Amino acid sequence: MAVYTIVFSPTGGTKKAADLFAEAFCKDYVTIDLTERGRDFSKDSFVQEDICIVAVPSYGGRVPDAAVSRLRQMKGNGAGAILMVVYGNRDYDDTLVELQDTLTDAGFSCVAAVASIAEHSIMRQFATGRPDAQDAQELSDFAGQIRRKMEEGTGSGKVVLPGNHPYKSYGGVPMKPQAGKSCTRCGRCERECPVGAIRADDPTVTDNAACISCMRCIAVCPQKARSVSKVLLAAGSMKLKKECSGYKRNEVFLPR
User: Fold this and answer.
1) Could you give the residue ranges of the DSSP H alpha helices within the chain?
2) Fewest Cβ atoms nearer than 10 Å: which of 18, 42, 89, 169?
3) Rounded CA separation 108/33 (Å)
């Protein structure tokens, strides 16, 4: 049995949660990075004995389109999939059920699922510092529960997940990172953008229609030269303040 983590994590929060879970589940695993836009994901093929921990962030209660399209290229061949959705303290809405549908269509067998909290990728005052030590312990406990289910052979039932069909509509967010005066045109943001929304010949130019507001460019810029509108950021923070307040717990979903 080989264990893989298949992760879409533009700013690192989803990967941090996935690694905490994976290290408790199996110390030896291989990571596949879904943000690599130049990778041919159709070459990623698994066997029935493999276990894939598939972790994605929730964008407006949905799986990011880029992650969906890349997962659909893979060949599951019956490999077991542990679904992991990471969200910034609001809600994950239909993300888990959409991820389950996507992986099932790609030939994976969904054996369990986890919903985990991480610091909001845009408005970092929400769920600041998470996943924290308590989250790490909970994710470790979840990994143990799922592993025991699989070893005991009691994890072969259907995993029932929260979510709706049709999925909720998501049209993106208006906050698109732009380059400031301190930009040196080093090109790192362009190279690491998961969807190619930044021009290679002029990294100060962003294609707002292509941008998914993942904030990867802000996270990787060595000059801290990229940012979103402070006005839009303040408005978004006010809008989400009530929904994102309070301490939300991680959840595990086991087969029936």
Assistant:
1) 13-25, 65-73, 95-105, 133-152, 188-192, 216-220, 230-244
2) 169
3) 18
Q: Please, how many CA atoms are within 13 Å of residue 44, restricted to the half-sphere of its CB?
A: 23
CA dihedral 35, 75, 72, 250 (to 10 degrees): -70
Span 138-174, pLDDT tens digits: 999 999 999 999 988 765 578 999 999 999 999 889 9
DSSP 165: S
Q: Residues 12-58: pLDDT tens digits?
A: 999 999 999 999 999 899 999 999 999 999 999 999 999 999 999 99
Cα–Cα distances (Å) from 176 to 34, 120, 215, 224, in that order, read 21, 16, 8, 15
Burial class (CB in 10 A: 0-12, 13-18, 19+), 30: exposed
Which strands sit side by side in the sheet containing 251-253, from one edge to the other? Answer: 30-33, 3-7, 51-57, 80-87, 109-117, 251-253
Q: Whole-prediction pTM value?
A: 0.95
Strand 51-57, strand 80-87: pairing: parallel
CA gap 79, 21 in Å, rounded: 18
By three-state DSSP, how is residue 90 classified?
A: coil
